[in-house]
Design brief:
single chain; 809 residues; mainly beta; Immunoglobulin-like; TIM Barrel; 8-stranded parallel beta barrel; 46 strands; 37% strand; binds beta-D-galactopyranose
Amino acid sequence: MNKNILQKFRIAIVMLLSVASISAQKKSRIVEDFNRNWNFKLGDYPTAIQSDFNASDWRTLQLPHDWSIEGTFDKDSKTKQAQGFLPAGKGWYRKVFTVSSKWKNKVVSIEFDGVFKNSEVFINGHSLGMRPNGYISFAYDLSPYLHFGKQKNIIAVKVDNDAQPNSRWYTGSGIYRNVRLVAAEKLHVAQWGTYVTTPEVSKEKATVDFKVSIQNDADLPKEFKVVTNILDANNRSVAQLESTEKIGANSNLEKGQHFIVNNPKLWDTKNPNMYKVVTKIYEKSTLVDEYETPLGFRYFAFDAEKGFSLNGVLTKIYGVCLHHDNGALGAVANFHAIKRKLTIMKEMGVNAIRTSHNPPSLELLQLCDEMGLIVQDEVFDVWKKKKVTNDYHKYWDEWHKRDLEDFIKRDRNHPSVMMWSIGNEIREQFDSTGVRITRELAQIVKSLDKTRPVTSALTENVPEKNFIYQSGALDLLGFNYKHADYPTFPTRFKGQKIIASESVSAYETRGRYDMPTDSIRFWPKKYGETFDGNPDLTVTAFDNIASYWGTTHEENWKAAKKYDFIAGTFVWTGFDYIGEPDPYPYPARSSYFGIVDLAGFPKDVYYMYQSEWSDKTVLHLLPHWNWKAGQLIDVWAYYNNADEVELFLNGKSLGSKVKKGDELHVAWKVPFEAGTLKAVSRKDGKIVKETEIHTAGEAAKIDLKSDKKSIKNDGYDLAYVTVSLQDKDGNPLPTADNLINFKVTGGAKIVGVDNGYQASLEPFKANYRKLYNGKCLVILQSNKKAENITLEATTAGNISLGTVSIKVE
Ligand code: GAL
């Protein structure tokens, strides 16, 4: 037997043994997906908590669900432009379910990952509690009120997102994250009841401190065994400890365990090696609970001069800020949608995400752990002083401590999380209350986790005027924008560790090109040359229109790259998001700041980052090649790994260019002539890469490309299909805006359509969409039918239909 087979054989035996022991032990924690078969209705129905309530006219749906994204854009919407003119309001969810009588002696709880917002949960007529914060995860114990056996239980959730405006960006409305039902034995690991840290890490050896909080809800004291295993990615135990404990009736016990792991595989952004801690609790020889905690071995540091290092290696933070919406799906937290978003970012070379400006979904953190993305985990956009009338300031006094504690407890075991941000551009930085509140929040964080720096995204960079800074409680100073002042930072903030927590805020529309491109213009007007907007509410995708508080992508990156003491930069933003389209008015309804548009199609500047941040060889040409004869076109190329780029038009050389100094692209001015524009990059005279773009002729056919060949038959999995028109030779038509109709058969339904145009008023839920600058997107979701999927696309005129087939597994 060769080594590989032996290894597999050994894994199989270990797995068999553990399966056998678990089944022999029979009962332990049961975690059930509780997303299906909910009824929903917009409006307020306080009597829906009663068992005899008639919900026959309520919709049946599967969570996660966002009702705002299903609505129509309304100029007079109370949510206003900041939330993309989509509706909010009140809504109720209701679910009828039975619980096996075998669960009678268990502790049954319901876990909500996030409900936007002001939720109140009722079980069989009893209120379990309210939760104003729409981004916080929470759970309730249902046990005292449950019926077992055949008798029905009614769970009802009231969601009140009516008081508007309440956010500076699109929030969505409803139970927009996952819900689970958890049945544990009376003796169990408490909610978020573990905490794992790695005080010493090296390639040779790591120490692990593990704390577990055990809850006994029984009226009797208990004696039990805690067995903890650290498992590697192949589920092999690399360390194990067990101890026998005693716990009183209805009480809690905290147990600490200390491990040594030899030769740990370190977690980093290229090799995100994950481990997990599995805690088993036995009463006599019966397994009563099993609980998993993620674990990664890494060490990191911020330095006032050198910036950030991961596992001892200096690593510039190539970050993006992301809001939580998933484009056409709205706020719905779907694992596959989040994975696509992060994959597109990772391919660009991103190594860090800032969860601006709220606690993220669980899935985002799990994916960042698995994919090797560093996280700046952010909790608040406001404290006690408001930014908009009905935002979180209303709940500050009563809830901030609880929300912050829950946020840290839920997220502190994820190795990807390396910074806690206690707030974004908080108003209190400008007055002395900032000192007290910052100290209080930092102290709350430190009481739960001392292993990560506490930071805050600041805008005031005059030290005496910034009271959050004055508190002395931040470990890491985050500055939003301020790129022009970087050279002064080491003297202004002597000895401080600094990161650009937010940067850029440049505006762009995918596929739109305005020329000439020679100057940077600011929008809205403040200083320098001004951009006054385009009549069709677009902004050129040549990177030269910036907000007056920000700058272009290139100028920002030049500044961040130049200074080692800037640990890195979080660009505002990785993706366009719904809301905040200003300075354009209605019908503009989503932002222009993304490096990638709302549909997930990269704007050209994506390749500037890819050429600087990733290992990929890049040679990207812009704009497209469909113009009027003789028109003078600015041609830009982003490239790397080469020392020159030569441009050819229809075979004729237009000369070679080289990036000079800190330049990030090269450019030519070319009188347009239809045909082929080709760029060739070379290093030491040898060709590195060639890129061609072609003038497209008449539309001949629709092209459909799915990002996946097959999807799972689970009701959740997604396939993203990109739609474009091609001429008879297969060249894409870069400015096409045809209306495309879709028909799907088999195991999927259409859950969203989009084209990335920030001022489109077409609905996100439809079976049609206009192309915008040549592209649109259809999002398909498994409908649980075990049938292969066919998506068909048709359009008017003499254009052949497009089809794509996707398998269902
Ligand atoms: C920042 C703010 C972000 C976003 C951005 C737009 O000041 O932190 O949330 O509003 O401006 O440029």
